[in-house]
Design goal:
With 128 residues, the chain is mostly beta strands. Helix content is 0%, strand content 35%. It contains no helices and 9 strands.
Length: 128
């Protein structure tokens, strides 16, 4: 399967900024392709948030696929619900369970899913 690729959207933070902002770019989900979330490893020690909006006429699920880089991938995939017409923000506290050798995370969607996705994270440094 050729996954659609998206990147984590990182806010610009400087040493004089107390509040950082970022204009969010939504990615339309092609259910059959799934998503490859690039640069996930950049948020290993910080908070990674993946936001999914379900515009289908039925409840659905999102599956964070186990990775192939770290030992805790043995915990397996995690499948979570997204109700019809709802937007859900998933906070990934420990991305290493899902991180692949190339630093990405793979996300799959249940058959019939339609909607959008984006991911945000906090960078590990202050200058981006």
């Amino acid at each position: 399967m050729a996954r659609d690729k998206i990147q984590i959207q990182l806010p610009t933070i400087t040493n004089t900024t107390a509040v950082a902002g970022k204009e969010i770019k939504l990615q339309t989900v092609t259910q059959a392709n799934g998503i490859e979330l690039e640069r996930a490893a950049e948020c290993m020690r910080n908070t990674l948030k993946v936001t999914v909006a379900n515009s289908a006429n039925a409840d659905s699920t999102v599956t964070f696929k186990k990775g192939d880089k770290y030992p805790n991938a043995m915990r397996g995939d995690v499948t979570l619900p997204v109700a019809t017409g709802k937007t859900v923000e998933f906070t990934v506290q420990d991305p290493s369970q899902f991180t692949n050798k190339n630093g990405s995370i793979n996300i799959d969607f249940a058959t019939g899913f339609t909607g959008t996705i984006y991911a945000t994270g906090k960078p590990t440094g202050i200058a981006q």
